[in-house]
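Two proteins, back to back. First:
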Amino acid sequence: MNSKAKGVLSYLLGWIGGLIVMFAFKDNNKRDVTHAAQAITISVADLAFGIIIGIMSGIMYAAVGFSISFLASIFSLLCFALRIIGLVKALKDDADPLVPVVGDIAVKLFEKQINAAPDAPATVVAKFDPNTGQPITTPEAKFDPNTGEPITKPEETKPEEPTTAPPIEVK
């Protein structure tokens, strides 16, 4: 399974997908494990906050007649947004897989698993000619930062070699 699919699996299946990616696949790199760690962290935080708010809401409703269960819904929406951000980063195969707020926490919680994984291979960024839209295959192609036009070296002209025989006249 490729790295993008592992990231998608992690975020779509939450903590279960994160555990599957983290421990079932042996060819994980640091990016895969980081996505899995973030998916686990987001899912567990959402579940724990929902349970805590549910209990507190029940107690408050019994005591005061006011419920705070809407806070769990707001927190779940925030967790959903973080999952979407992680999913987009996984699909883009982003070099920086960290999701805002949760990324640093997940890295600290799963530091051992992340450090045990090998580094992710560098992503190759294709360069395109701005005029034609075609990919540039020559590694020496560069663009002028002011105009965006490709910088081309002038072609070297080879002097014509003289022929040893005189030209033939056709009558």
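And the second protein:
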Amino acid sequence: MAAFISSLTVADAIGSFGALLVVAAYFATQMRMMNSDDLAFPVINLLGSALIVYSLLQNFNLASMLIEGFWIIISLIGIIQHIRLRRSPE
């Protein structure tokens, strides 16, 4: 275990933190602590995915990069929709 920990890089730590953010946002929605309509949900997912992409640029994996790319696009769409809905008259 010590050898594994000593082999981790800064990119691994950053990517792991990003994964924790994405999972925490999902967990918070499942526990009804956060609503998926809240702006925080896509923002946290965007940040988490961006951190994971950073780590993937150091240790590339095509399948993971595809998922994170789509996750970033979906998060950006969610942020844009949130902003549009707040600006539209009711």
